[in-house]
Amino acid sequence: MTNKQFSFIVTSSLGGESLARTGIIHTPHGDIKTPAFIVVGTKAAVKAMVPEQVKAVHAQAVLANAYHLYLQPGHKLIENAGGLAKFMNWNGPTFTDSGGFQVLSLGSGYKKVLDMNGVMNANDAIAPEKTRRAFVDNDGVNFKSHLDGSMHRFTPEHSMQVQYSIGADIIFAFDELTSLHDSYEYQKQSLNERTHPWARRSLDEIKRLRKLDETKPYQALFGVLQGANFQDLREYTAEFMSELPFDGYGIGGALEKSRLGEIIRWVNQILPADKPKHLLGISEPDDIFVAIEQGIDTFDCVSPTRVARNGAAYTYNGRVNIKSAKYQQDFTPVVQSCECYTCQNYTKAYIQHLLRAKESLAGTLLSIHNEHFIIKLVDDIRNSINDGSFYELKKAWLARYYHRT
Predict the structure, then answer these.
(1) Known catalytic residues?
(2) Buried (b) or exposed (e) across 262-282, using 16+ Cβ within 10 A?
């Protein structure tokens, strides 16, 4: 990459059969040491945390949602405020997704419980069109706002315009996110008639927008790969995206947890090695190890703060529910050896009291711990790649977390 404001260098590789590597993504708002967990702040806010707390857990970057920010407060308002980072008082790199996730979550997956196996309730898995809030055609998507019911049109061009105004350092091409319950024929049609043409249109539009103000900080555009569990479709889209001048790639779409590693490997063996790869929506420890081992550089997920608000905390012995009665008089930290603010100052008994009293502080304290925990895990993995101890760390860490013998 030649742009002076955005670059990626690989600093070390694990070698052997593994695609794991460390690197540095340079952006206008700072560097990201990879592999890195990107904290999610959907509406320009990490749930229950202020930016100073996000920085204190050693987060390197924040990802926001372009669709939600378009609806509220509006992308032009954020542009007038000086861009996403300044608007939310975040001193560091930012990402925005394209609105592609809402194509599924408000469309064929509307009111379904989405997971890495498609949906939990497999019966009637595809939402009937009359119940949806997203309606796809080959040119774009019509969205019905969850805020007031108003209709909004997203095309690749509009998504780029919204993300350009929001001003994140790394943005994503508009795509159609499909589900595991869509047929092979639909997945292939989606690539050929929507995701691939939309990728070209996204590139053309961001190129046009960059010329409007060449003093504006450079926004790197990542292409998004779909194709579900089908090897031929994943390799086909990887070949297609490799030929386009993207700054990096987002690996997304429906995929089974048990096949995560092989699917990532299919595409990363084809995509250019000198460009960063982002995995959308991953934060469970076993998935993190698998993804990094197969060459993922960055990834994001809402899970650390979501499970925190429901009373769950990550520990080295697995996830625990602090609401459990056994913690009522437990005056020890969530994790004895943890250096996060929560564990240094509060006990499980106090956090349980907050949860039972429905005090919002419970979500804040557990979010601080969970984000710190996942970020530290990824930092430890990065260090293990550098010193060659990755496989030892993986074996010991996962055995303890999942109670494997």
Answers:
(1) 97, 300
(2) ebbbbbbebbeeebbbbbbbb
